[in-house]
Write a structure and sequence with these properties.
Blueprint lengths: L1 E5 L3 H10 L4 E3 L2 H6 L5 H14 L3 E5 L5 H12 L5 E6 L2 H13 L3 E6 L2 H10 L3 E4 L1 H6 L4 H15 L4 E4 L5 H10 L3 E4 L1 H6 L4 H17 L2
Parallel strand pairs: 1-2, 1-8, 2-3, 3-4, 4-5, 5-6, 6-7, 7-8
Helix pairs in contact: 4-5, 5-6, 6-8, 8-9
Bound molecules: SN-glycerol-3-phosphate.
């Protein structure tokens, strides 16, 4: 299972990378704006900075919604660095653009996926990754993890090579359940990754081990 961090914050990306368990990064226009990164050139430069921190796939999202615009933007993004994955929304022209990029050998991440039907289309178009949004489905009283389960089953039925990238993963249990179900990748904020560390019995046990060592070596 791959771990991607879902942020454009360079310090957090560095921290996750230093932990030694990071496989890539996902960003989106909202995450870029949250870091105050605006203007085309600044955004492109920021992607390069991210690629220089992490040796893994980095999703960079197009903001055009028509085929020609997505192709132009995507080719520009892909030329930035070998690890750039062009992130394309699940809309009609997006499906066409994913097909185009897959034929050109450019990696893609189909984003804003909320149904199995959309996931089938993304796989048929040849997406490298497909991003179902678990938390945002939960937000509207729909079981986000059930979608991951359906997708795993469907992709297995047909040996689709598209990797299921569980996105909008908000807490540790989301991550653990995605692992149980068999998502290929999860993308989440840093606190979800570091949240995996936490167990009170670990802290209590370590405290006792260190106290006993001190007693024996005083
Ligand atoms: O990767 C998608 C993600 O950024 C959305 O997360 O928490 O805004 O639903 P969230």
């Amino acid at each position: 299972m791959k771990f991607f961090i879902d942020t454009a914050n360079l310090a957090e990306i560095q921290e996750a990378n230093d932990l030694g368990v990071l496989d890539g990064v996902t960003t989106n226009p909202s995450l870029m704006a949250k870091e105050g990164v605006t203007g085309k050139q600044n955004i492109l430069d920021h992607y390069v900075k991210i690629c220089n921190i992490v040796d893994g796939d980095v999703s960079a999202e197009v903001v055009s919604t028509d085929f020609a615009g997505m192709v132009k933007e995507g080719e520009e993004l892909a030329a930035l660095h070998k690890n750039i994955v062009v992130k394309v929304p699940m809309i009609k022209d997006g499906v066409k653009a994913i097909k185009y990029f897959s034929q050109k050998g450019i990696k893609t991440n189909c984003t804003l996926v909320f149904s199995s039907g959309q996931a089938i289309l993304a796989a048929k178009a040849g997406a490298t990754y497909v991003s179902p949004f678990v938390g945002r489905l939960d937000d509207v009283s729909t079981d986000g993890l059930a979608l991951i389960e359906q997708m795993v089953q469907i992709y297995q039925n047909y040996d689709f090579e598209t990797q299921i990238l569980a996105a909008s993963v908000r807490h540790v249990m989301h991550l653990v359940q995605c692992a149980e179900i068999g998502a290929d990748v999860v993308t989440c904020p840093l606190n979800v990754i570091t949240g995996l560390l936490k167990h009170p019995l670990t802290d209590i046990g370590l405290e006792k081990f260190l106290a006993d060592y001190k007693k024996g070596n005083a």
